Hints:
The chain is of the alpha+beta class and about 90 residues long.
Amino acid sequence: xxxxxxxxxxxxxxxxxxxxxxxxxxxxxxxxxxxxxxxxxxxxxxxxxxxxxxxxxxxxxxxxxxxxxxxxxxxxxxxxxxxxxxxxx
Length: 89
């Protein structure tokens, strides 16, 4: 059986609302976005979507309505995500 894609929205749900802003900022920093720690929260959300769309353009994810399906291994090296990934992700 081939590995299945990871839903970004499901991952955000696992992270939880309280931890989500820090998680998003960590994602942006991991993606090389400068100044993520100082960005207003609204801007962080916009940049997260932009980075997810870049993953789609690079063939590492697909868009599914208001969600993104990340191919297996896309988040390798993103340490902040590791506690929220199951062994199947």
